[in-house]
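Subject: for your reference before the review

Hello V.,

The reviewers asked for a structural picture of the protein, and I figured it would be easier to keep everything in one thread rather than splitting it across files. Below is the amino acid sequence we used in the manuscript, unchanged from the supplementary table.
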Amino acid sequence: LEGKAEGVTLAHGDRVTFGQCYFVFVDPALGKAADLLNEGKVSFEMARKELAEAQGEMGGASEEELKASRALAEELERKVKEAQVAKEQAQSEAGELLKKREEEFRQQMEKRRQEWLEEQAQAAAADERKAAEEHKKHAEELERLQREFEERQKKAEADAQRRLRELEAAAKKAAAEEEDHRYHEQAMQRLEEQLMFIMPLVKEANLIAQELKRPQRLETKMHCEINGSKRGGMRVTACMYREGVRLFEWSPETLENRVFLLRELLQRCEEEGFEVADSLADEDDPLWDPIEVERLIGVSQVLLEGVLLQVEHSFEARILSTEGHQAGVLHVEIAPLGRDGTPGVPDDEVVDDPDELLGTRMSVLVHVVKARELPEDLANDVRVEYNYFIDDRPQKLPVVQGHCTNPVFNHKKTFVQDPVTSRFLEYLQSKLIFRVYGKDSTAAALHDAQAVAEPGAVSVDAGSPSDAQSPASPARGENSAGFYPPGMIESQPGSPAGGASPPKTVPTVSQVRRQAEEAMEEAQDEGVVGGATLSSGEGGRSKTCCIL
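And here is what came back from the structure prediction:
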């Protein structure tokens, strides 16, 4: 309704949104809300999709895309079933062929036996030498037949096993493709749900900040999670900016909590004046958090399979940012050590089968040489860390002080596994993940400027959240009624460990809704709801709204 002073006349069935609530306008003279819902003319999903399309932010999948996705899933399922049927059929054919050849062999042996008996009867009068020669020939013939039968049987069994392996591989491939497809569909659904949850909150927070004349602005960010597995993930956060400088990021839960506090602050400003927002301390300001000076430049992955094969290898691994872009190159060398501790395994210590390493002692050298082509704005006090096998704490390299886009670490670390276990061999088939961090020069300058502007403020380490709270002020997020908004923890900073005073009550979602309904009822008694005056319709007929 912005820019339309004369207003808009609503018709029966029109949709209206207030904040995150969806309404449908019903004229009792033309029908009821239940009729619209039963006839499928309005629904929550239709209203939500219509709002998303109207705002131009996102749209749901089309019917053709859904039909294509279902067809692909059915095709993958059909391939799995066909592979299983073919496997069972091959097993049955192999069994029948084996039985048939055994029966042929028995018949042939019986025939040969009968022939031999007849020949023995006919040669009974012959001399012993001739009988011995015939017996020898017969024995050789039987041995040849036995040998041929065993060879044919072995060949048939090998063919059957090969066919079974091929069918099992095809079945596994089809099942893996189906699982990947299902995982992709679930990941896209989760991403869409996160975006539909966080984007309206970001927009509302920006509107409130603009109303309060604050320079901070929020943006929705999607991050790629790289953890060394084949399947990655997507994470959605809200990134706070001030005058183009990135300050920190909020998770969806934190964003929801801060929007709750911003609504409360805006209400206080409307009641007491906007000077309230200007006089807030940092720990009471919903838009304040310690500036995150240090940021993750990117992640680099290095294969450990060379260690399993007992060979040295050197990598120029790409550093990928959370946005999926290349943010530099990391030079890493990984080498197994011989028994004398020197890099490389001598030929006499190399094993043919990795399983032969079980129970032995293995040493691995990880050498982080250098990085290059790092982003200019983040190439400050660069450091690297990584997690090796089952270590609880990450291995942290010394910080390269100052500004440098091509820092040299030259850090070596030897890891000893004694004894080698099956779990360790499985780990060597994965990837070693290196995380590269650096400080944002613009954020650091803004942090230093704030520290100079507030000499009496409590010092907080840049980049790490502060847990300090003023003992005289309420805990962060607490309102005047002594309640915390949804998502806040119950315990208060500064409370005694023994629980001398009971913790504040955390209201549930239903309690918050009940408080909102009570406020709406009070506003209705005065004839005002959400800034719009309620009045009767034309001809004295009342007009109502139905919540979807």
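For the response letter, the relevant points are probably these. DSSP finds ten helices and 17 strands in the chain. The two ends are 21 Å apart (CA to CA).

Happy to draft the paragraph if you're swamped.

O.
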